[in-house]
Every structure is written in C-alpha cells, then in structure tokens.
Amino acid sequence: VASQSIVLLPPVKKPTDIFTSCEKNEKQKPSSPKQGDFSDPVYKEIAVANGAINRMNRDELRVKCAELKLDTRGVKDVLRKRLKSYYKKQKLMHSAAANGNTDTYFDYICVVDFEATCEENNPPDYLHEIIEFPMVLIDIHTLEIVDSFQEYVKPVVNPQLSEFCVKLTGITQKMVDEAETFHQVLKRAVSWLQEKELGTKYKYTFLTDGSWDMGKFLHTQCKLSSIRYPQFARKWINIRKSYRNFYKVPRTQTKLICMLENLGMQYDGRPHCGLDDSRNIARIAIHMLKDGSQLRVNECLHSGEPRSVPISAPIEGAPAPQTPKKRD
To answer: What is the pLDDT of residue 87?
Structure first.
C-alpha cells in the first residue's frame, strides 16, 4: 500500500492532488496505526506527502491551503506547517477515535500579559509593580475569545509613574491613583476565574508571551504585597517557546509583532496596553491551534525562578483558583 502511494504521488507542479493517493489507500486499509508505531503505512504516506509539501513554493502552498479551505495567510514556513498538520490530523483522526482519545488537553486557555512600573533605564535593583492586570479567555472547543478581565492596580513602592512608563503603556497617573492595591485586584481576578468554573468543571491553563509575566512580575508583586504565590499560576504555556518549536523558527522571530506578521496578521489595538497585548497573543494562540499545535504547558515556577517543563511531563490543568492568602 505504501509503495502505491509513492507511485501515485503527482508532480509537485500539481499541489491540488497531493493527498489523493493517500486518501484512496485509507479506504483500502481501515485499521488505525498504534500510537508510536511509525512503521505503519499511514506514517509512510504522511512522510511522502510531507516531502512533496517541502518542495512546494509559497504560491503552490497557498493554492493547496485555499483548496482545503485553510487560512492562506502567513510566510512559507507557516503555510508548510499548516498543510502538514492538517494532513497528519486527517490521517490519524480515526486512530485517536478508535482509542477514545478525542479529548483536548484543556477546555480553556487564559492569556495574561501584565503591565508594570518601569523606567527608561531600570537600575538593577528596580522593583517592577503590576499596574495592569488583564486576562483573555480562549474557548478551546470553539477557538474563540469568549471573555476578558481587566483592572488597573495602584503601585505602592513607586507610586509615581515615570514619564517613560506612561508613554509606553498609555496608563496615566490618574488611572493608578484611582485603582485599588494588588491584593484587592487579585481577589477579583480569582473571583472572575471561579465564576467561569475553571479548575472545577473545566480544565484550563495560563498562557503568556515569555517568562516575565509569571516568573518576574507576578512573583515580585506577591512578595511586595506579602501574598503567597497562587498555586494556579505555577505552570503556564510560554507561547514564544511553543511558536518557535512548532514553526521551527529562530528565537528572533518570536517577538509579538513578528509572530503576528509571520502568520499574516497585524497588531490590533495599542502596543503595551495589557488587554490589547493579551488579545493579540490570544489571536496567535488560536491561529496555532488551528494549524495543529497542541500548546502544552512548557514552563513552571521553581524556587522563585521560571524553569522549562519537559515534554515528557504529564499533562494536567491548573488547579482551581483560591482566594489569595497573606504570607506569615
């Protein structure tokens, strides 16, 4: 069967027919491959199709994506990954169904992108305080943004915002002066998460643009506010790592604007507005999920420092959020 698929594979000049022979062979061989059994003919068919996809130019990739009603935006590497993921998913879908493994890892992903106090040239001992607490909720089943949370936070250590910080974030002195302290805002953020039944009825996890939000900003802020670091925020998805590993791009291509542009999108809103940043990060996450990425948890907080989570680690959602507790 595998040899037939190789013979029947058409020239690269005809991207419209790349998957035809494999689809015919699927009807001849209804049994599903075992997980990890890469000697199965199905995987050989996938390898053949992947080889053909690798030889296609950007125009041919876009034509094939259009035929399959996939998004045609993005650079060549993105389009190539999109086609490969689509085809692999189609070929292996019946295997997952046979094993009863059709569930997703999470029901929701909560995107967080804090804004914090800053100077144009931060001294080494500068303490960043969170001044905007935004969250954007993605429904994994519908692949849509379904809700959001945002509150400004009153800084205590550096109550006067620098001119640089105001210009960068768009957050004015009046906004933070009228806001409540971090402890109160965190309480309301937890209540918002609890209302969504996250960690109780639904599986969820957090997602950030880099390691700083949880590993630096939240950790520092909890210490400043004499609050125990919340258990529900100890593990998260660093989308920069996920993007780099999924699309096989260099680290320099994982800045927010670069990721958007490579996916054929533009930034929507005001850069360094925490809520707008969170929404744009969510757009990237949704795009990656549509392209076949699984978006696994890949970072955690260990002894006050962000650490990588190995891919072999068991998949688990964040625990149910609890009311923040004061440090002893």
So the answer is: 82
Same domain assignment for residues 184 and 281 = yes
**Residues written for the chain:** 328
Residue 85 lies inside a defined structural domain of this protein = yes
- Tell me whether residue 21 is in a domain: no
Q: Does the predicted TM-score (pTM) go above 0.85?
A: no
SS percent in the chain: helix, strand, coil, step 5: 45, 15, 40
Burial class from Cβ neighbours inside 10 Å (0-12, 13-18, 19+) for residue 94 reads middle
Question: For the segment 11-69, what is each residue's pLDDT rounded down to a tens digit?
Answer: 433 344 444 333 333 333 334 444 444 455 667 778 888 888 999 999 999 999 999 88
Domain membership flag for residue 71: yes
Q: Do 190 and 235 belong to one domain?
A: yes
Strand partners, 202: 198
Phi-psi category of 248—alpha, beta or left, where left has phi over 0 and alpha has psi -120 to 50? Answer: left
Known catalytic residues are: 115, 272
